[in-house]
Amino acid sequence: MNGTVSNVMVKIGSYLDLNTPVAEIVDNRQLHLDLFVYEQDLPRLRNNQVIHFTLTNNPGKEYDAVIYSIGNAFEEDTKTIPVHAQVKGDKTSLIEGMGITAVVSLGKATVPAVPADAIVTHEGQDFIFIQTDAHGEEEHHDEAETGHQPRRGRCPRPY
Fold first, then answer.
1. Under CATH, what is the fold of the domain 4-8+21-104?
2. Which end of the chain is more exposed for a tag (fewer CB within 10 A), N or C?
3. pTM to 2 decimals?
């Protein structure tokens, strides 16, 4: 039997019979995720879809899993539907019961995007500056070089 002892249910000197569990053994090679998805997101999910997830206590390392089962009944307390996925690849540092943050891949659409550091926040609003003239920054000189004031403009509309 492969795995790691995750829970010992008896103490030294305990009396046992054939039906008494002694310990729980977890085989981390077969870990899976239990996700709970809201009703409005359910139509976007399907079997064999990839899920990227990180551990709540270690958001820097990303893991992958593949959906193998989508529930067909709501959970009583949360009104969510259970989705099960098999963890693929490296399972280092994964332990049964850990909290995760998951992102479900919904397709391979190409959309316009900018790096996070290209967004400027000013007075609670986010701005992205777009160069619209054909000349780059190298064409702009400061007052000391040309004797002219630097060009000033208005901020573009909020993003």
1. Elongation Factor Tu (Ef-tu); domain 3 (2.40.30)
2. N
3. 0.54
